[in-house]
Design a protein that fits this description.
A 4-stranded mixed beta sheet has the order 1-2-3-4, with helices on one face. It has 2 domains: about 120 residues, no CATH class; about 170 residues, Intergrase catalytic core (hpI Integrase, Chain A, Orthogonal Bundle). Helix 4 packs antiparallel against helix 5. The protein is elongated, with a radius of gyration of 22 Å. By secondary structure, the chain is mainly α. The longest helix is centred in the middle third of the chain and has 33 residues. The protein contains 13 helices and 4 strands. The two termini are about 35 Å apart. The model has no long low-confidence stretch (mean pLDDT about 90). About 55% of the residues lie in helices and about 5% in strands.
Length: about 300
């Protein structure tokens, strides 16, 4: 936090110290605070103490959001609504002035609405470009007709489609060991597959996730893989588990082989959710949001 001036550093240190946050989350918050601090400097605000310049922060956020919007939200241009929202959600917790607090609440609502609108447009365009229905996506998994799909492919599709997992959940999934702080997959004494997640995006919020899978082909595929004594579920050609920054390419390559078009975990999730929503299957929406995991409220803001 050395890049932050002392008042801003103390604010953020207090906020982080009162919560159980992982290192990546803390680094993201430091980056957000530093970004806003430097933008205040550019407006000739000295010293750029965040909690004493709330109105100036609103101006900065609006300017940066409009800059991002004008660029069609290109990477590293301005600030997207979701970034403004995330900063304000942290910032409101370090503001004691009720008047300022109320104004920040209004600003959060504004950027949440903007993010919702952006997500709706982006999701619609993504799904239109891909032009794949949920039924088409799951049809290739019909057992036993599609024997051309490998055991790894079947497990990959099953987890992505039925559990809505993110990329991180699929990295370093142990098969021979069950480390208490890692992800692992095994067959229990009842012959059911058990997928345990201790390393995923929202672990500090939801804790350990355990999913029992009784799908016949999934279990058969996992047994076949276990016979090879491999250490991890998904491994590259060098025999190493995929990392978060490489598993996405693996998913796209495997789905392109299967469907003829590469799909990301996010797109697969959106196809499923759009199908359930269009068919008024609210319970299926809630269940899939829970296994991802996030709340149905987050679903409406970031994925629809």
């Amino acid at each position: 936090m050395e890049k932050l001036i002392k008042p801003n550093r103390l604010l953020l240190e207090k906020y982080c110290g009162e919560r159980q946050l992982n290192d990546k989350t803390i680094q993201n918050y430091i980056y957000l605070f530093y970004r806003i601090q430097e933008l205040l400097k550019l407006k000739k605000i000295k010293p750029p103490v965040l909690h004493k310049n709330v109105d100036a922060i609103f101006e900065v956020l609006e300017e940066q959001y409009l800059l991002a919007k004008e660029s069609d939200f290109k990477r590293l241009v301005g600030l997207k609504a979701v970034i403004c929202e995330k900063f304000l959600l942290v910032f409101i917790n370090v503001i004691k002035n009720k008047h300022d607090n109320d104004k920040i609440t209004d600003a959060i609502e504004l950027y949440t609405k903007r993010q919702t609108n952006y997500t709706a447009t982006k999701s619609k365009n993504q799904l239109n470009d891909i032009d794949m229905s949920y039924d088409e996506m799951v049809a290739v998994m019909a057992y036993p007709q599609n024997s051309s799909i490998t055991d790894n492919d079947y497990i990959l599709l099953y987890i992505l489609i039925n559990l809505g997992t993110r990329n991180m959940d699929l990295t370093c999934v142990h098969l021979q060991e069950r480390p208490p702080t890692e992800n692992y997959l095994y067959i229990d004494d009842d012959g059911v597959a058990v997928y345990v997640r201790n390393r995923y995006k929202l672990y500090t919020t939801f804790g350990t996730l355990t999913n029992k899978i009784d799908d016949k082909r999934f279990i058969e595929s996992l047994n076949n893989i276990n016979e090879t004594n491999r250490s991890f579920l998904f491994m590259n050609k060098h025999g190493k588990p995929y990392k978060t920054d490489t598993i996405s390419a693996y998913i796209k390559s495997q789905t392109k082989k299967i469907y003829g078009v590469g799909l990301t975990e996010s797109v697969i999730y959106k196809i499923s959710m759009a199908h359930f929503k269009n068919n008024d299957a609210l319970e299926r929406q809630i269940a899939l949001a829970k296994t991802r995991p996030h709340t149905i409220q987050s679903q409406s803001i970031y994925y629809e």
